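Q: Fold this one first, please.
A: Sequence and structure below.
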Amino acid sequence: MKIHKITLQDFRAFFGPHDIEISGKNLLIYGENGSGKSSLYKAFEHFFEASTSPKDVESNIFTANTAPFVQFELSDGTNYIYQNSEILPNTNQVEFSRIHQQNPFFSYKRILAMYIFDKSDYPEVKLFHLLLDGVLQNVYDPILGKTFGEMYAEIGEDLRQRGNSNRYKRVFAKISSFKIAFGAILEKIETKTNEMLQTYFQHGISLIFYYDNKGDFLSEKVQLDVAYFGKDTPLPYHDFLNEARLSALAICMYLASLKVIPEPPDLKILFLDDIFIGLDMGNRLPLLDILKSEFSAYQIFMTTYDRAWFEVAKRYLDNWQSVEMYVGKDENNMFDVPVIIQSKDYLERAKEYFKAFDYPAAGNYLRKECESCIKSLFKNTKQEMYLLDNEGNIKNTFGALFEALNSYYEDCGIELPKQILYGFKISRNAILNPTSHDDLKSPIYKQELENTFSFVNELRNIQLPTKKKLFDCGDVLIFTYQTQPYNIILNENIFIIENNGQKEIPRLYENPKPYFSIEINDKIIPSIPLKGLTKIIEKEIKTSGKTYNIASEKDFFENLMKNGILVKDILGNF
């Protein structure tokens, strides 16, 4: 079951009626500040909260006589309206209440609470209450026979009843049960969080929760320690990790909690409100991978105020609906109201202008699409450095971006696909440059535009080779003949390139690069390609009166050692 349509009328920022058609898809939302993103987030939060107890509907301050409401139309055709403090009809309250219990609504404020806190609490973060109030408050536990929040409140009330000896004595059994249940679910969250960190990130970070469940009294202290590549860190986690890693850790922890808390059977919702604040691209994309892999059964709603990130995410997320929210004015131009429009990418806009015979506008949007495609290729493969010019600024012209793409392929030792190179030359000369200028000497022909659409489709579907570092410049590889070791020093980084399922080191065997230097008799022979290196070693061995013939350059290279490990074993595990 999915949400098919959302209607908001006079709720918070939404003056008058507003419809969002999503047809059961995930929804990516770009919204400038003040456009109503947070009000949409609150609409979800309050709707499902009202399924468990009456919840007043927050009205727009300019509303006169209408009763504000939030309405969800589900994929089975049923409509549920949150109005006058309740949800009607009340036929699906149990399902909605399970969503409220799970609390799958995460905002940047919940993320920041993990590492921005009152200085009086330093160096500790009040993790116990962050977890209890923000994650487990409404979660039912079979050991307790009630929710964690209910049991915690009950324990607090019993402890205040010291005059009632029977009630006061019974509280210690409740405390024991609470600590066992809390410790058990904390362990599950820890395991799932570490699984996500290990699978989707390369931080080398793992976390450990410590919770004291011994003794008679209720402990309200949860300690979180972080290990870095298996080594305990000397500082508190919020001092040791940078902001991006702290945010990634917090998001993973919250998402992990959803996987260990019982999930609703039918309607599964996840709403992420501007949670990518503070994250760089290297930490944003793995989180999208988590959503794709771990939450494929959920209907996800995700907001951002970052326009560039919105465009990247649109390309990265398959089959998502996307909308844009802006600050507009009411019909009397007196106050701000949200304006919601369906988001269209540059290619869609180019097609619209092409159909309207506005060929210069179509060509202009095709150029924007090409530029956006190339930027996304580099960002998705974490090769953003190719986007920077000599002064560290991002390249923005199509010519400079295409040259960066060509340079990347050259560095990988691979030729740029011929259809891309040909398409670039034809489109750039015929369409992409003339349509961006007041150039009356370059008429725009329909056939040329159609050719450019074909080029754009090729560019959209290109699979960029991946480039991963194998060895660092300065690393020492060891070749040993009998008992004689030879130190081989790397003159530059060595990368493995994966392209179309094949892995290779560029220019190692064919058209070789001088990757190596070798130390012989306390002298360094610099800048040698692999073939030259094998010849030098063979010659050196022969000077000692022995004969040694290297079978092949590939065999020689793979049998070198680094830190006691064969290169071929390193390659096999890479």
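Q: Good. Now the second chain.
A: Here it is, same layout.
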Amino acid sequence: MEIGVCYYPEQWPRDRWETDSAMMTVAGLSVVRIGEFAWAAYEPERDRFDWDWLDDAVATLHTAGLSIVLGTPTATPPVWLALERPEILAVDAAGHRQPYGTRRHTCPTSAAYRHEARRIVAALVTRYGDHPAVVAWQVDNEPGNHDSARCWCDQCQAAFVGWLEERYGTIDALNQAWGTIFWSQVYPDFVAVRLPRPAPTTHSPSLLMAHRRFASAQVVAGLREQVDIIAAGSPDRDITVNFYASDTFIDYRAAARLGGIGAIDSYPHGVDSAAEVRFWHALARGISGTNRGWIMEQQPGAINWTPLNPPVPDGQVTKWLEDAAADGIERTLMFRWRAALTGQEQYHTGLLRHDGSSDRAYTEVQQADVSGTSASATIAVLYDYEDAWALDIEPHQAGLTHRQLVVAAHAAARELGPIDVVGWGDDWTGYRAVLIPAAVIATPARGEQIRATAATGTTVVVGPRSLTRTAELTALPSKLPGHLEVGATVVEGLSLPTELTIAETGIIVGPWFDVLAPNEGQAIGSVGGSSHLAGSPIAVSNEIGDGRVVLMAASSAEAWRWLMRELHLGAAPAT
């Protein structure tokens, strides 16, 4: 794995750049990301480009033997542009125009913003597209972060109406698909469908899902415009978009596949567990469509934006880097090179301290052994952004997320060896098992992919609450799981206020539990105790072709580990 760093030469004196470049090479770094927040430095005023400083920075890094990932600066348009064209600024759900002086404050739909983004990207590509030091481009920065994908301006409202017309064709079709007769929500025409704003109670899940899909599509369309400019003007360079790993504001899979690299920003202190960090590594590869994963920002020490921001133990940065390499990450860039003297991230650690001396992480990156390669995965876990949106909209249990349920299954399976993360429509052939922990949406295509995969000899495990809603987030008027007849039906899906256990094990079943009724399938395990659920199956297996489909009723990581053993998918070691 290659190790690099994020660097901001525009924030430091010119006479420091050679020292920084030399220290980077001493530390064994080989690639440097620059420029993703530098629009005001690139273009101090309309059409007056200042390339001298960037020419010097690129030359300095190149002379030191460092490769460059050049960022497009569209997450932070300059103040002069916001003043000149205020329509680029997003509007929040309460109708307030977002202020400048921050980041990710633009409207993804705004024709003015999209035009200005194309203009600055084209200027960068014209200047540096064929520079030998530039080996890759980063498009934008953490798109969707801070819930910036959704905007409520008039342009977005008009575009939303057009998006609905294209998706549904007629207003009658929309009303039927959404079931708008509920609470007398029937729309007379598409113009009457408004973006969901604060209301006395919740909006229709179908409307909320449509808004999520629309917002994601708008962001991805803008990213595609930048990717197309770069691909045409800077051929044979890698192109990626970096994502804050745990966000679900846009469909990362759709965005990552624009360039074929899944790049995440990894801040372990910002997530729930170490197991989740390992999941993000697999996700980076999985969303790419090419199995290529990068970490564009890696936490180097204490950070500034979590509730407590605790210190990082000695050796932890080395461990994070070695874990990333073991999980198949190609390239990891530390964020950042030197702790910032100004702005909103002054408490964020860098490889260097504020005074320019080396911090602990500067030494720890040199101690990391990242020379190994990861083995091929035999088990895959499914993670899908529309399923994540479905649970964000209707979790049925406060705080429960698609991410938590998938990470539990991934943590259990990872003890058996390397794990891939896949999506619907990806190639699942060749895996010993595919785990589907929380795929809420049921479609005929999803049911067919599960059956076809099992028929080839794979064990496909479908977790609780899976395949229970239509694509419009309406309940299915049929037996569950929807579009999948596999030896059992789901009688009831429970959000448990009490702790049920697997009989004779003491293993807690988890936050969700499906009551399964076997017909032709084979029951595996049962609920213990004396409640009315005692004896209910923990799983039901049904053979299909050379493989099997297993319905899993429980949701905890411990229950998934138990099931892996029961299915003889590998002996999970004691933890």
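Q: Anything worth noting on the second one?
A: The mean pLDDT is 96.
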